[in-house]
């Protein structure tokens, strides 16, 4: 369940009365560029976000940044002992992933880095491809809301899916 405090802080009608200010507040972390979004959709986007995330997910993301590790949720030493049988959370072992993976990423995505992508590529045993979006200002939320997401990303995703289906037949 989403934290009510988070919703009240994120709610554009409570946080500010100016759409431009709301855009800057909401997208400060992700590198959003309002000029790249369908402007008719921005008020709808602002009204329905944050969506699909919880306070715990945000804390987990912050833990990863703080620890520098790609690890399971850190409950604290005592609870970690109960949950994981060790005082610190174990790292995710992406080398155990058995399905084919294609990565889609952007240089201007503030929530990842090229260094992290390259590290992940080297860890994935069934990596089928890694696609860097060609637009240098493409950012995290552009994957969802950019007016040019279809030619830059979605069509490439469908191509990757088609290749996967063709390989499995």
Description:
The longest helix is centred in the last third of the chain and has 20 residues, at 149-168. The chain is 47% helix and 7% strand. β1, α7 (114-123) and β2 form a beta-alpha-beta unit. Strands 1-2 form a two-stranded parallel ribbon. It is globular and about 50 Å long. It starts with a helix and ends with a helix. It has 9 helices and 2 strands. Mean pLDDT is 82; it is low at 9-13. The protein is mainly α. The chain has 2 domains: 4-52 and 93-168, no CATH class; 54-92, no CATH class. It has helices spanning 4-10, 12-15, 19-26, 42-47, 55-67, 77-84, 114-123, 142-145, 149-168, and strands at residues 101-105, 127-132. It comes from Macrobrachium nipponense. InterPro entries: AB_hydrolase_fold. This is LIPA.
Topology, please?
Layout: H1 4-10, H2 12-15, H3 19-26, H4 42-47, H5 55-67, H6 77-84, E1 101-105, H7 114-123, E2 127-132, H8 142-145, H9 149-168
Parallel strand pairs: 1-2
Organism: Macrobrachium nipponense (Oriental river shrimp)
Protein name: LIPA
InterPro entries: AB_hydrolase_fold
What is the structure about, briefly put?
Helix content is 47%, strand content 7%. It has 169 residues and is mainly α.
Approximate strand percentage: 5-15%
Q: What is the domain total for the residues?
A: 2
Residue runs with pLDDT of under 50 for 5 or more positions: 9-13
Radius of gyration: 19 Å
* Distance from first to last alpha carbon: 41 Å
Which structural class do you get from the secondary structure elements? mainly alpha
Biggest beta sheet attributes: 2 strands, parallel
Give the % helix.
40-55%
Task: Tell how many strands the DSSP assignment holds.
Answer: 2
